[in-house]
Amino acid sequence: SNYQFIIKDVVGEKKNVGMITLNRPKALNALNKGLMSELGQALTEFDADNTVGAIVITGSEKAFAAGADIKEMQGNTYSDCILGNFLADWTKVAQTRKPTIAAVNGYALGGGCELAMMCDIIYAGDKARMGQPEINIGTIPGAGGTQRLTRAIGKSKAMEMCLTGNMITAEEAEKSGLVSKIFPADKLVGEAIKLAEKISAQSPLTVALCKESVNVAYESTLSEGLRFERRYFHATFGTKDQKEGMLAFIEKRAPNFTSE
Ligand code: HXC
């Protein structure tokens, strides 16, 4: 394909995992307009591809992404930001309907940390460093760093990170719940692909309902979220996949899901 800043691939034993590798190594995968637009396009293509069940996004061993491209945005005026709706197109990552897994090796800073947090699950390599260093360059996080980080690790830790720019280690990120698991750097991407393969083996229909339901916990009050969850739970009883899944359990065999 004709991508300049990313590598797009389909991987996994059954070729059911969409793989996106951020590929601006000389700039530590700084996220410029071109890269973010290609990333959005690749995610749109994977969402539309019935053979793909889940998506892995990764960078290099040195950097997942060292942030938004400082050289590109340095000269932006306030007016440019407002009239150009700067960063609005980043939302595509969080709006991807298929499950997304960030495999973070090395630096995930600023927009890089925010990009990882837009994914559904984060796995980290043992040398990963995550942070929101915007305060050091006279700005604040602009793509969810003050919001998603606070929901992920709580106010005190998020406040400390955003106000100091201090990075946290992979161990700290795991302990605080920002990432689900840590692996040796060279095993990370393989483990993320295995996770994506496991998700891809589930019913795509049920996966879509489940992902949307977890995300409601992020975006609403607990009571609204619980009500929404219960209705979606009820809705699964209208599917053949629920009948098949439960029957297969009772009959002690593997389920055969059909998305009906
Ligand atoms: C543009 C960047 C960059 C960035 C690194 N580079 N980060 N270019 N934007 N965010 C470039 C460097 O300029 C350099 O280019 C090359 O990548 C290698 O980086 P070095 O600094 O030489 O590497 P190193 O000494 O190993 O230090 C690594 C680092 C440091 C600690 C990650 O690069 C760093 O602090 N980067 C900036 C991190 C940051 O502040 N991120 C937040 C950005 S603001 P040359 O041409 O000199 O070789 C942000 C706003 C978010 O993300 C708002 C919402 C999206």
Automatic annotation (TrEMBL):
<dbReference type="InterPro" id="IPR018376">
    <property type="entry name" value="Enoyl-CoA_hyd/isom_CS"/>
</dbReference>
<dbReference type="InterPro" id="IPR029045">
    <property type="entry name" value="ClpP/crotonase-like_dom_sf"/>
</dbReference>
<keyword id="KW-0456">Lyase</keyword>
<dbReference type="GO" id="GO:0005739">
    <property type="term" value="C:mitochondrion"/>
</dbReference>
<dbReference type="Pfam" id="PF00378">
    <property type="entry name" value="ECH_1"/>
</dbReference>
<dbReference type="GO" id="GO:0004300">
    <property type="term" value="F:enoyl-CoA hydratase activity"/>
</dbReference>
<dbReference type="InterPro" id="IPR001753">
    <property type="entry name" value="Enoyl-CoA_hydra/iso"/>
</dbReference>
<keyword id="KW-0443">Lipid metabolism</keyword>
<dbReference type="InterPro" id="IPR014748">
    <property type="entry name" value="Enoyl-CoA_hydra_C"/>
</dbReference>
<dbReference type="GO" id="GO:0006635">
    <property type="term" value="P:fatty acid beta-oxidation"/>
</dbReference>
<comment type="similarity">
    <text>Belongs to the enoyl-CoA hydratase/isomerase family.</text>
</comment>
<keyword id="KW-0276">Fatty acid metabolism</keyword>
<protein>
    <recommendedName>
        <fullName>Probable enoyl-CoA hydratase, mitochondrial</fullName>
        <ecNumber>4.2.1.17</ecNumber>
    </recommendedName>
</protein>
